[in-house]
């Protein structure tokens, strides 16, 4: 495990037995979950020393049963601790990594296909410490080609189920694409979870990420539950990062998981009546996408209408309305 810290000597009184001094908690525990991530995780780890600046930190990677050589790649590195695990999902991997990390006042959640700019973490930590009630900090993220990555999101509503981002109207748009929203520090409903700095007290109060989502929506759920408990998610443009996206691949199955989890989180927050409307509107949206040529959406439509063929990892096959 990479642990960077300053060690100070203590004076001993002659004749006295030296006392062991418990080391203070680190500033940050960085946690990464990999799954077939050989193309990207090396660049992430290479970026971390400069990204942490003078902070004390640890780096722990949980590998979710990769088959592409990721464990072997990680084993050759000396800048992280690796925990090999069965693939219980992304949220379970993050929770496992946090529990296995040494004590730290904050948790830095990182996707393996991200890289951080120099001093990104101290800048995020400064925001967390300066703003009362802040529990989650999201940086400014760019795409691989340098363009802004629109990572900020509004909370889910019936009006936003269609993903009508082209309208630019907040009532219809969950994804925030207004450039001006990325120029200043402010609170948001939630942000894409590729790079998030979390106050450890917030993480513990919420008992970590909800593992029932397996993949996708865990950061949505976490930020919204944090807000319910009085912790704000804050965006800062002063800290920078790059996120490739889709580092572990995208398929009809993962797209189906994403759509089912959106329904599940909406149901859990609003109740069955409104969730039925959200479910019906999701079916309509996916049929439209399929007709327009997105073949993944046909798989999603079938899974929405036939619970028995839904991805078993979600545990959402017992009822027609995903729960």
Based on the model shown, name its key terms.
323 residues; alpha/beta; Spore Coat Polysaccharide Biosynthesis Protein SpsA, Chain A; 2 domains; 9-stranded mixed beta sheet; two-stranded antiparallel ribbon; 9 helices; 33% helix
Describe it.
It contains 9 helices and 11 strands. It is an alpha/beta fold. The chain folds into 2 domains: 218 residues, Alpha-Beta Complex (Spore Coat Polysaccharide Biosynthesis Protein SpsA, Chain A), CATH 3.90.550; 63 residues. The strands form 2 sheets. Strands 1, 2, 3, 4, 5, 6, 8, 10 and 11 form a 9-stranded mixed sheet that branches. Helix 7 packs antiparallel against helix 8. The longest helix is centred in the C-terminal third of the chain and has 20 residues. The N terminus is likely disordered.
